[in-house]
Design goal:
The complex is a heterodimer of chains A (174) and B (437).
Chain A (H helix, E strand, L loop, with lengths): L20 H11 L9 H12 L4 H11 L3 H10 L11 E6 L2 H19 L12 E6 L11 E3 L2 E3 L4 H14 L1
Chain B lengths: L16 H6 L4 H7 L3 H11 L11 H6 L10 E6 L8 H8 L1 H15 L3 E6 L4 H16 L15 E6 L9 H8 L23 E5 H13 L1 H5 L2 E2 L2 E2 L1 E8 L5 E6 L4 H7 L10 E5 L8 E2 L9 H6 L8 E6 L4 H15 L5 H18 L7 H12 L8 H15 L1 H9 L24
Helix pairs in contact in B: 2-6, 2-9, 5-6, 6-9, 13-14, 13-16, 14-15, 14-16, 15-16, 16-17
Classes of the chains: A alpha+beta (174), B alpha/beta (437).
């Protein structure tokens, strides 16, 4: 598995974001799938997160303008869900499942191991901006616990040693 | 039992249209298109198929709630939000047999007269959303979907819609709100989605596994399906077994087998030579069961009789090394995190439960804590909230307190009082006249 790093390219400000033609084309296609523009909000936010790495205030403004919503409405939606990044994330976000099946099958130890190895607490990034540690709720892969999602990819049946090998590989890639 | 829903697991290229077709796939949709909508609905009613998402409501009857004379569009939604702790069956179906899910969607859409169907899949399932997109493109290119599907005159578009991280969106009205581009706040019912659903139109929301049963019911008949399992609890069921078993994973068995059979025969029993302490029969929202309740049958009615729920079929197994108080705290954190915040009993209750359980775990429990937990749970359940998340949090926590009261009491008996925090005193008190010495 070759996990793609996140490139957080949106500026951390209200700086105006202009969708490039390819992104604009994908948004236009999305809009054909729904009878209302608002319904395209989640998928448009996904496209933006893919393109800009995170959902900055400028991205919120641009999405709101494109879909005819107020920025406040869009921000309300963005912050309701856990997966839109409202701050620039590290290149690799390590999402450790903390819910029961994982917790009793080594998930808690995995989280402690990562805290020690990376020297960060859940929610924090490493100083080099490479890794970010996050504790998350059930990832729906309880039969292969413990599970860590790194960016878009699931890593299952982990042990500290296996996870170390994954992290070494990602660190090498950068 | 022969493998029905999981028949493609382990086969090479099982995801492709060619592989699915060579196993007789998409023939059910062809057959369905040749019958009337009423016949099709009757067939599903006769099969006694009950929803696999958790509630166990009869699927055919759910379809009949869609008003027949409604002039405008109507929608089918496939609920692939799979977020109930302990549940991982829909992912397995999509991973190995996405066309079976699509064919089920096509059959249900035809039955209710929907020309557009959405698959609402949880945001984390990026890879499985892509698998579905690929399968849809293949089916469309083969003329199975899109305009004039299979030359029948019936049009059907299926779109994959990814959520963005919210357990609550598995609840059908929250899902509908989310699909409309809003926060996932559940709606008050009635009106039910079959009458006023997504975009204000009649909508049926069915779970992935429910839909995957349809091609088999159509091709092999309602009587065949009803012959599997037990009366009123028919058909094959995917059980997701996780926790302290030797071989965790998804197993397909007829409804009505015992949990003992599932755990001991199909999952290798408890691992590391330990003994069973407790299990959740149907996801973490079902009341917990003790080791002496292992012979309960895994079907909707038997679980209800035993005071629990079959739910989604997520069996979480806990051995005798498990700290039940810690497990209760773990789940309380889950529900506190996932409460949408609309209703006070759920929002505040789950937070209070976290505070109390964390305090007990930290060794500072108080004698009244278990009863306070039970009271909080009572306030959050039995219709005190808009959606069942209140019950989902209250039932496991209260059942753990009730069935393992001794564990809670023992922990509290050896607790030390929480160090008294010095109450913040107004910084200028005492330095001004009239505020003490």
């Amino acid at each position: 598995m070759s996990t793609k790093p996140i490139e957080a390219v949106a500026p951390d400000s209200l700086a105006r974001v202009v969708f490039d033609p390819s992104l604009e084309a994908r948004i236009a296609e999305l809009l054909t799938r729904y009878p209302t523009r608002r319904a395209a909000l989640l998928p448009v936010l996904w496209l933006c997160q893919e393109r800009y790495g995170w959902i900055s205030a400028g991205v919120i403004e641009a999405v709101a303008a494109r879909l005819g919503e107020s920025p406040a409405f869009v921000e309300g939606v963005v912050t309701f869900y856990t997966m839109y990044y409202t701050k620039p994330p590290a290149r690799y976000v390590l999402q450790v499942c903390e819910t029961l099946s994982c917790a009793v099958c080594g998930g808690s130890e995995l989280l402690e191991h990562l805290e020690r190895r990376l020297g960060v607490k859940p929610g924090e990034k490493t100083a080099d901006g490479l890794f970010q540690l996050v504790g998350v709720q059930c990832l729906g892969a309880c039969g292969s616990a413990p599970v860590v999602q790194i960016n878009d990819d699931y890593y299952e049946n982990l042990t500290p040693a296996r996870l170390d090998a994954v992290l070494d590989e990602l660190a090498r890639k950068g | 039992m022969e493998s029905i829903l999981l028949r493609a697991r382990g086969r090479a290229d099982s995801r492709t249209l060619a592989a699915y077709r060579s196993a007789g796939g998409w023939e059910g949709f062809r057959k369905a298109l040749g019958s009337s909508r009423d016949e099709l609905t009757k067939q599903v009613i006769d099969s006694e198929l009950r929803g696999r998402g958790g509630a166990g409501f009869p699927t055919g009857r759910k379809w009949t709630f869609v008003p027949k004379d409604h002039p405008g569009p109507r929608y089918l939604i496939c609920n692939a939000d799979e977020s109930e702790p302990g549940t991982f069956k829909d992912r397995e179906l999509i991973e190995h047999d996405p066309h079976m899910v699509l064919e089920g969607i096509a059959i249900a859409s035809y039955a209710i007269g929907a020309n557009v169907a959405y698959i609402y899949i949880r945001g984390e399932f990026v890879r499985w959303a892509a698998i579905l997109e690929t399968a849809i493109a293949e089916a469309r290119a083969a003329g199975l979907l899109g305009r004039d599907a299979l030359g029948s005159g019936f049009d059907l578009d299926i779109w994959v819609h990814r959520g963005a991280g919210a357990y609550i969106c598995g609840e059908e009205t929250a899902l509908i709100e989310s699909l409309e581009g809003k926060r996932g706040f559940p709606r008050l019912k009635p009106p039910f989605p079959a009458v006023v659903g997504v975009f204000g139109k009649p909508t049926v929301v069915n779970n992935v596994e429910t839909l995957a049963c349809l091609p088999h019911i159509v091709t092999r008949g309602a009587a065949w399906f009803a012959g599997i399992g037990r009366p009123r609890n028919t058909g094959p069921k995917l059980f997701c077994v996780s926790g302290h078993v030797r071989r965790p994973g998804v197993v397909e068995l007829p409804l009505g087998v015992t949990f003992r059979e599932i755990i001991e025969e199909h999952c290798g029993g408890i691992r590391d030579g330990r003994k069973l302490r407790a299990y959740f029969p149907g996801g973490s929202s079902a009341p917990i069961m003790t080791a002496d309740q292992l012979d309960v049958r895994a079907d909707f009615d038997a679980c209800a009789e035993a005071g629990t729920m079959l739910g989604s079929g997520g069996v979480i197994v806990l051995d005798d090394s498990t700290d039940i108080v810690g497990a209760a705290a773990n789940l309380a954190h889950f529900y506190a995190h996932e409460s949408c915040g609309q209703c006070t009993p759920c929002r505040e209750g789950a937070d209070w439960a976290v505070d109390i359980l964390d305090r007990i775990v930290a060794g500072h429990g108080r004698p009244g804590d278990p009863d306070t937990l039970l009271r909080i749970c009572r306030f959050a359940s039995q219709g005190m909230t808009i959606c069942p998340l209140g019950d989902a949090f209250a039932l496991p926590i209260s059942s753990m307190v009730e069935k393992f009261r001794a564990s809670f009491d023992a922990r509290i008996a050896e607790a030390t009082p929480l160090p008294q925090k010095k109450l913040p005193v107004l910084p200028w008190a005492g330095s001004r006249p009239g505020f003490g010495s």
